[in-house]
Amino acid sequence: MSRPPSPSMSRRFERTPTPAQEDDDLLDEMHLPAKGYYGEYFREERKLGMGAEGSVFLATHIISGNVLGTFSSQERS
Predict the structure, then answer these.
(1) What's the structural domain count of the chain?
(2) Structural domain range at position 64
(3) Which of the residues in the chain have pLDDT under 50?
(4) Which of 9, 47, 48, 57 has the fewest CB atoms within 10 Å around its CB?
């Protein structure tokens, strides 16, 4: 017994959207976080350092008053 050949890579990832899928894609784009997410939801605590590529800050992620974590954040120059 032999098995049928696998579909080619180019055909495997092709997608022909239906009108309903196109509407869903537009809705997904509308719900993406707006530009300025970092400024809105992160509070920079202090500068940790700087180098040729930019500066690194200690930042706290806060949404609706809930602290989600503390992270280092790089600001590129």
Answers:
(1) 1
(2) 37-77
(3) none
(4) 9
